[in-house]
Write a structure and sequence with these properties.
Layout (H helix, E strand, L loop, with lengths): L8 E5 L4 H12 L4 E5 L2 H15 L3 E5 L5 H13 L3 E6 L14 H29 L2 E6 L14 H19 L4 E6 L8 H4 L15 H13 L4 E2 L6 H14 L21
Parallel strand pairs: 1-2, 1-4, 2-3, 4-5, 5-6, 6-7
The protein binds NADP nicotinamide-adenine-dinucleotide phosphate (NAP).
Amino acid sequence: MSLTGTLDTALVTGASSGIGATYADRLAQRGHDLVLVARSQDRLHALADRLMRKHGVKIHVLAADLTLPDERARVEYRLQEDDSIGWLVNNAGFSAPGALADGRLDDIDAMIQLNITAPTRLAGAALARLIERGQGSIINIASALAVAPELSTGAYAATKSYLLSYSQSLHREVGHRGIRVQVVLPGVTRTAIWERAGKDVDAFPEHVIMEVDEMVDAALAGYELGELVTIPALPDMDAWNRYESARLQLAPDLSRNHAADRYKSDIPEDA
Ligand SMILES: NC(=O)c1ccc[n+]([C@@H]2O[C@H](COP(=O)([O-])OP(=O)(O)OC[C@H]3O[C@@H](n4cnc5c(N)ncnc54)[C@H](OP(=O)(O)O)[C@@H]3O)[C@@H](O)[C@H]2O)c1
């Protein structure tokens, strides 16, 4: 059964491994044709061949480095022009190694390009067309670190906080125009991302590590439940709802015509 009622093509970024490859498998299993994006053309073709044989869907490979504007532009163009595409899974991402004080600014800049600029531009490229047809799905893969930046070093968590915030804004803007927005906040998931970041996933206690199949299946179940925010590991969604409710209660007091009393000088004016 389709998740949307129609079998739109899904464009999945970072589809050559881990979470993206698993999304590709699950969406193909449901009958969606696919456009697979990542840098490694060989791995994408191998996956496409396997999934086409397994699920009998059409799959196109679009190799691109999403940190490079010229290459990213080919993916944007595809999203603007290809009327069959109704799903965008913004999954490609990486965690630049090192702490902020290490000063690896080029690595951090590339991470911002991949984790922030690319998903924002790709969603933007697809939106006008999806709004016109009144239907579409944009899934952003953030991280549980979006709400727990203290658990991480470097700017990775901040890029994921951006994706959470961006998804909430996007939902508010286009949710009522037929666009389903979902942001997924996985915890530690066993994929190649850890090794690429110079870390050993097995250094974490076993009870905090989720296998990638279970993580993606949970995320798709969250989509089917109509969730805007899906946290695959969180046992009680009410805990998230309470957190959101506390945040929203701040809203009326975040902008006022006078500073709060604690910021007012107690030095008399004629002193
Ligand atoms: N695994 C976790 O514990 C975890 C937890 C929370 C969130 N996440 C998020 O989940 C998403 C998927 O990560 P993963 O765990 O599945 O890691 P992964 O196995 O390393 O996969 C990352 C994917 O992104 C692609 N990619 C990397 N750099 C790229 C670039 N410059 N241009 C285009 N594609 C690029 C990679 O393919 P190529 O190398 O072929 O380009 C690969 O397909 C990421 O956004 C990550 O931040 C992961």
